Amino acid sequence: MPIVEREPPKGRRESYVLPKVPVPPLKQTLDMYLTSIKHLVKEEQYQKTKSIVEKFGEPGGTGELLQEKLLEKSINTHNWVYDYWLDDMYLNQRLALPVNSNPAMVFPKQDFRDHKDSLKFAAHLITGVLEYKKHIDTRALPVDFSRGQLAGTPLCMKQYYRLFNTYRLPGLKRDTLVIHETGSTEQEHIIVACKNQFFVMDLVVKEKTLKEMDILSQLEKMVKMAENTEERQPPFGLLTSDGRTEWAQTRDVLIKDSVNRESLAVIEKCLCVVCLDDPSGMEVGDTSRALLMLHGGGHEKMGANRWYDKPMQFVVGEDGVCGTVCEHSPFEGIVLVACTEYLMKFMTGSPSKIGRATSVSELPAPRRLLWKTTPHIQGLLKASAERLQRLVRDLDMDVHKFEVYGKEFIKKQKMSPDAYIQVSLQLAFYRCNGRLVSTYESASIRRFHEGRVDNIRSATPETLAFVKAMTDEKTSLSDSEKIKRLWDAINAQTNSTIAAITGMGIDNHLLGLREISQEIHMEMPEIFTDETYVASNQFILSTSQVPTTVEMFCCYGPVVPNGYGCCYNPQADHLLFSVTSFHGSTETSSAVFIKALDEGLVEMRDLCKTSNNFVETTPKYIYIYRNISLSIYSHLPCKH
Ligand code: COA
């Protein structure tokens, strides 16, 4: 049964019926899985995996049984993969949130004349957040429609309703995503962090909502209070930067005391956290701003002036370094972009109302959150600080603007910009490492009810043939052979994208088959303990397109110790890349990767230009997945 996505107030907005995430055919997934790994592993290992996969998929075998169970589950639930995916991607993960999980959005650098200026900015930003939240609470946000490939279908809006009312509670084995009812009166406050102190800003005082000048006056009082060293509390925010199990254990210690319990309860229910940062002392550039968003520079800088569990955390630095750092489990980067772009436009388009509005009332002094500490807790704080410092030292980040051309040039070649950029990332990786590796590219499945993402496995055999043509076989192949291979790579990538965004990706399906086997208490099928499956889920290259229409960019860390995180933002005339890796790995270097990427992008452009002279560049797509996708959407009552 299709599900009505949203029921807005009568006459306000249209509602759309979204299909459920489909369960792909078993054979299709198993074939695609084998194709996706064949060229990435040794022949002997491939043969072993092939026989395991064939056994799993044989008629009447384990695969068919699990597939049947998944199909049943898809009938009985709104979204069969949602919980499996959420647990696997986030809640079961034990690594610390900063760098490893929380992405950041870096706002344009602000030029504050003085400290007061930065507080005015923060007050204006908070006002924007409250405006945006009003749209959410009244369900007045317009429905998003897909762009790019298969443009024009309505997208699931559910993630927007998780922006401000969620909290990731640490657990010993698994975290919990706590969801408050939208518009709950328990949630009428924000938390302001300043000098590692946490303050409560009640947004409703004597039944009146604070106006911007009230917000500013509260912020000013908080800053004054934070400066009072006698009342200063220990930097408990650091604890949230720790590994999830460590933080859960510490939290169990903290809540034995009622003061800590109360402070935690207030933070866990807030709408968002606003971090007022002191100047970091670092030279302000794109890379340093991104670093400050991702980890705050550690405990010596702003790393403790954060509460990493809270999904929406805004940073306003006195030195103009501003942005958001987000707990990722409730929403994707694309929804974050929509929200932050609204805020940026609000900030520039609607003048600050400070000085024009009258105060709502005599405002009570802001509340500082208090913490009870013991020598044991002090020790835990020290350990958290050290672990964060290690992460800070280890992160190798490079934000790079490739200015030779942008997505308009790629479109002129009649190629998908996203596919082209993915191929260029593979070329860069191959140049640096002489091999391709399991790669993750997030593909939105918001075309489906409660859809989040699946994976586009970008290291295709066609791309391997192309990158070899550009490196190992560079001199022996003609340009026409190289361009043919480029087209094959682009077509393969485009087809994988279409498969993934229409719910035919293989990663969610394999995850579902694995997890349902555990639900029915089956011994873990060999296909999931096989070294190829394990390795193919270690995404050495973790990539994501996060495009923006205002000047800002997204970044995140690698997902494995020897990997790269690569977030890119294609613009008309340039491409922005945020590349991360760990210094601790001898296999990676963000600067070397960027250099290889730059070179490859120039070579690809030259190849396209040369080929324009002798090759018919009309794309010869083999839309093998088009039929699948069209049948999924055929019943939709949407306008195209
Ligand atoms: N010739 C000319 N133009 C083409 C083309 C071709 N062959 N193929 C695509 N284009 C155009 C598109 O029409 C589109 O135009 P627009 O800029 O006017 O909208 C543009 O190029 C971009 O299309 P493309 O590069 O193919 O990518 P896409 O926009 O379809 O994006 C994904 C592909 C996978 C990134 C997207 O589907 C997706 O899933 N995005 C979400 C990723 C995500 O979740 N990120 C956050 C994770 S936290």
TrEMBL record:
GO MF annotations, alphabetized: choline O-acetyltransferase activity
Pfam families: Carn_acyltransf
Keyword Lipoprotein in annotation: no
Chemical reaction(s) catalysed: choline + acetyl-CoA = acetylcholine + CoA
Enzyme superclass (EC): transferase
Alphabetically ordered keywords of this record: Acyltransferase, Neurotransmitter biosynthesis, Transferase
Alphabetical GO biological process terms: acetylcholine biosynthetic process; neuromuscular synaptic transmission
PROSITE patterns per record: ACYLTRANSF_C_1 (PS00439), ACYLTRANSF_C_2 (PS00440)
Record-listed E.C. numbers: 2.3.1.6
GO cellular component entries: cytoplasm; neuron projection; synapse
Top-level taxonomic group: Eukaryota
Active site per the UniProt annotation: 328
RNA-binding in keyword set: no
Domain Choline/carnitine acyltransferase: 21-598
PANTHER family per record: CARNITINE O-ACYLTRANSFERASE, CHOLINE O-ACETYLTRANSFERASE
Function, in words: Catalyzes the reversible synthesis of acetylcholine (ACh) from acetyl CoA and choline at cholinergic synapses.
Family: Belongs to the carnitine/choline acetyltransferase family.
Name this polypeptide is given: Choline O-acetyltransferase
Organism of origin: Oncorhynchus tshawytscha
Gene: CHAT
